[in-house]
Amino acid sequence: MEYNHRQTEQKWQRFWDDNHTYKPAEQTDKPKYYVLDMFPYPSGAGLHVGHPLGYIASDIVARYKRLKGYNVLHPMGFDSFGLPAEQYAIQTGQHPAVTTEQNLARYIEQLKNIGFSYDWSREVRTSDPSYYKWTQWIFMELFRSWYNKDTNRAEPIETLTDKFATNGTTDVNAVCDEDAPTFTAAEWNALSTRESYEITLKYRLTFLADAVVNWCPALGTVLANDEVKDGVSERGGYPVEQKLMRQWMMRITAYADRLLTGLDTIDWTESIKEQQRNWIGKSVGASVKFPIRSTQQLGGEAVSIPTSNIEVFTTRVDTIYGVTFMVLAPEHELVPALTTPEQQEAVTAYVNAAKLRSERDRMADTKAVSGVFTGSYCVNPLSGEAVPIYLADYVLAGYGTGAVMAVPSGDQRDWTFATHFNLPIIPILDAQKDIDQQADNTKEGHYINSGIINGLTYKEATAVLIAWLEERGLGRGKINYRMRDAVFSRQRYWGEPVPVYFKEGGSTGRLPYLIDESALPLELPAIDKYLPTETGEPPLGRAEGWKYKGEHEYELSTMPGWAGSSWYWYRYMDPQNDTAFASKQSIDYWQNVDLYIGGTEHATGHLLYSRFWNKFLKDRGYVPQEEPFKKLINQGMIQGRSNFAYRLKGTGVEGTRPVFVSLNQVGDQEVTPLHVDVNIVENDVLDIEAFKKARPDLTENAEFITEPDGRYIVGAEVEKMSKSKFNVVNPDMIVEKYGADVLRLYEMFLGPLEQAKPWNTNGIDGVSRFIRKFWRLFYKDNAAGESQWIVMDEQPTPAELKVLHKTIQKAENDIESYSFNTSVSAFMVCVNELATLNCHKRAILQDLVLLLSPYAPHITEELWAALGNAPGTISEAAFPKFNPNFLVEDAFDYPIQINGKVRTTISFAVDRAPGEIEQEVLADATVQKWLEGKSPKKVVVVPKRIVNVVI
Asked: Is residue 172 within 8 Å of residue 207, measured between CB atoms?
């Protein structure tokens, strides 16, 4: 009987759903194991075969851990807020919730078809008000907290105000705004409620501030860096500019050092850790003030007087005497004041051009040199010399202070800029070489042209300079981080409303306040269309009568896409809880995620924000663990295998008849390769009729020059899987034709999980044959053509036990090391060897079913029940135990060499003495024939290796 995958897979998927097979126990003595996939955004395109790769791997681990006696939590949900659904709503007027629901239904159907062991009762969706109620609540907790550097954790804002009331700012060591005022307890206690509240806004972990953002006018919203490519929006390709806007921010910088040191405690790939280290960018250096000089007419002559300072952070304060110009970011707040009338036109043009380039592009472009002189100067605080102030877009307003003291002799980018603008390049160390050709950033040698540090070494000079600056209030030693506070608002509709309303008052004219917790969730209001208002407010400004308690304006921006994904693993622990984001009992049991699988593209976004929120929740006593994900695996990309038809050049244009030439018939002819849908190609043979139907624009009246046997052979190339390349393979088609178990096995078989590999449907036949061969160990057709059960209860032979236990050892080692591809090979070898041994014994096959069940759950469920076990109990069974004794050889086949050439093979017990082996070898008929009656000169017996007879 041929195995019927459609019938079997649908049967067991219904069984798992009906019986909640994969729902973990609430109370158990078993150890816990939490395995999680980065949850997907449900796009309208659904899944292609590249998407399930990580999901299959995590499912194998989840099923394996159940067999090893763990209580396994393996949930799935959806990151269902997002810009694509909103853009579709703008185009069609359809509410994003409707689009999202349709997409979700499609995703769930596809995921269930592949047979994942998810506990679907725990499904979460970030756009569900019962979920985002708790995203809003966490925002409120952040707003109600400050970061105490002395205790190195977040604390309730009340502990800060208690300090103010007792000692003012004297003993407050906090992460706060730069302009936070100092005051005594008496001064604090004399403030009005509104005045004291406004001061606390400078300390809270989420706050309002002006920030330079990626503003996309066409989309009417701020975009994250990873949503901008080459200066345009990834979605739609609209221009993006840098713009200073008032935004909600999160003080992730408070956690910078803990985010760094925490990397040493988790089992993540070194490449991901290094990306986070570079993003956080810890630097030890100094903050230095350069006084600005402006020229005014006094008594008939021009004199320079200091007006304010430009503050810079540098890791090489020792190079300060080599500063020959200052560079500001085009967005720097002092640019308008520093620009002289003569330079106004050039500066305005440069600033406008810089707005159109993304931060990522500006940072990456190390070759182009651009800049403009402001017309103003500042003063080197050490040398007293005037320093011209330039703008350059390689300096970013949000990094450090948005200003760089340029030392062209020691920094290549500064050297290139100075050379381009003909600015001085001053040597500062006697060990610097060839600075007329390039910068030399050496720290060796002794300082020259450097005032108070002349003759000193690097280690000596740094301490002297910092002390000098601190004594005069012109600078200080400082640790700086490249990472900036995170922008936490988007001018969109389809996102979490921010639970904030405003009252008039304060220095900005209105102050933010949290809504009552009892009002959560603050749900999205209905609006007429999903565009900004005519006055430029975000789409929520269109909501009629949407006010807090009928009188106060709500915040009109929504939360960013990463808000709901920064804590979702906790909601899976207790998804129906109405009184907390998860119960303490659930959190204390599941703790954190043991294995997390997802793409590398989230290294400095989702993964960093998740660690930040997790640390905050621990500080406030809501969770016990510092890190959310113990082990992280980044699956590689499955690339597409594109197919091409070849059209003769000059045909199919201007009304001429198109001529398509099969690959092997092209020869020296000039052809144009055109993508064809890989789903109408089988083993590189094109279905010509299907091609004509799919692409009538290309094939009308076309002639096809085929191979002599009538086949049209296509070309192939590995590319990214995308619709535009017609190389997207839908997993539904694979499941329909071959079965979900074959898809699962094949995706693992393609290669190591972490590596990129091309999809080639041609190779799937081998896995399909393996499944059928595995089935035939249990069934055969009798003479009447009926299916016959052939499993026997006989005792297995040593050879059969050896095959099984070799596979047990391999399967266990491979899953523990996440080497799934080699396990699939081992299963194939095992089935082939058992078939050769004509093994149909229950004692062997039942364990083999268990071994294969994490990879191919449907066929193994069917066979498990057929073996007489209660249906659906395979996940409650125990993983087979490896017994090394079955791999111990009791005999060895010795190759017998005659004068160095193997002439025969003889089997001996492994404990036979060399002398006995020698006697039997010489008595063997084949050996006697090759001896030709001669006596051997010597016989060499190498135990368990070889016997060599020398004549």
From this structure: no
The helix/strand/coil state of 496 is: coil
Cβ contact 589:32 at 8 Å:
yes
Pairing of strands 206-216, 221-223: antiparallel
Phi and psi angles of residue 626, each rounded to the nearest 5 degrees, phi first: -75, -35
Tokens 């008032």 belong to: 246
Amino acid 297: pLDDT = 39
Asked if the bond preceding 521 is cis, omega within 30° of 0, the reply is yes
User: Alpha-carbon distance 494 to 72, whole Å?
Assistant: 34
- C-alpha distances (whole Å) from 884 to each of 554, 806, 830, 834, 888 are 69, 9, 17, 19, 7
Output the six-digit token pair for 815.
């899953």
Of 674, 245, 255, 268, residue with least CA distance to 491: 245
* 683 φ/ψ sector (left φ>0, alpha ψ -120 to 50, else beta): left
Residues 171-215: pLDDT tens digits?
Answer: 999 999 989 999 999 999 999 999 999 999 999 999 999 887 888
Q: What DSSP designation does 849 have?
A: H
> In this model, does residue 167 exceed pLDDT 80?
yes
**Hey, what are 188's tokens?**
């604090």
Strand pairing class (145-148; 153-156): antiparallel
What 8-state DSSP symbol labels residue 713? B
Strand pairing partners for 646?
661, 673
Q: What is the pLDDT of residues 871-928, one digit of tens each?
A: 999 999 999 999 999 998 778 889 999 999 999 999 898 888 999 999 999 999 999 9
Check: CB of residue 793 under 8 Å from CB of residue 841.
yes
Residues sharing a CB contact under 8 Å with residue 349, sequence separation 6 or more, in sequence order: 372
Q: Cα–Cα distance between 728 and 101 in angstroms, integer?
A: 23
Considering Cα of 598, then 604, then 606, then 607, what sign does the dihedral take?
positive
SS3 413: helix
Average pLDDT rounded to a whole number, residues 451-459: 95
φ, ψ of residue 582 to 5 degrees: the values are -170, 150
Separation of alpha carbons 149 and 772, rounded Å: 64
Alpha-carbon span 344 to 338, nearest angstrom: 10
Q: How does strand 681-682 pair with strand 629-634? A: unpaired
Nearest CA among 453, 458, 459, 473 for reference residue 321: 453
Q: Which tokens sit at 7?
A: 């019938």
Tokens for 625, please give them.
């663990």
**Read out DSSP for 3-45?**
--HHHHHHHHHHHHHHHTTTPPPSS-SSPEEEEEEPPPP--TT
Whether the Cβ atoms of residue 481 and residue 256 lie closer than 8 Å to each other: yes
When the pLDDT of each residue in the chain is averaged and rounded to a whole number, the result is: 93
Q: What is the DSSP string of 37-62?
A: EPPPP--TT---TTTHHHHHHHHHHH
Look up residue 887 and give its amino acid.
L
β-bridge mates for residue 894, sequence order? 906
Q: Quote the percentage of the chain above a pLDDT of 90.
A: 83
Q: Note the pLDDT tens digit of each residue in 140-153.
A: 999 999 999 999 99
Measured distance CA(458)–CA(445) in Å, rounded? 8
Q: Tokens standing for 253?
A: 């910088």
- 60: number of Cβ within 10 Å: 25
Q: How many degrees, rounded to 5, is the angle at CA 51 between CA 640 and CA 97?
A: 125
Q: How far is CA 259 from the centre of its chain?
A: 17
Which residues on neighbouring strands pair with residue 325, listed in sequence order?
Answer: 406
Token representation of residue 547: 């006010």
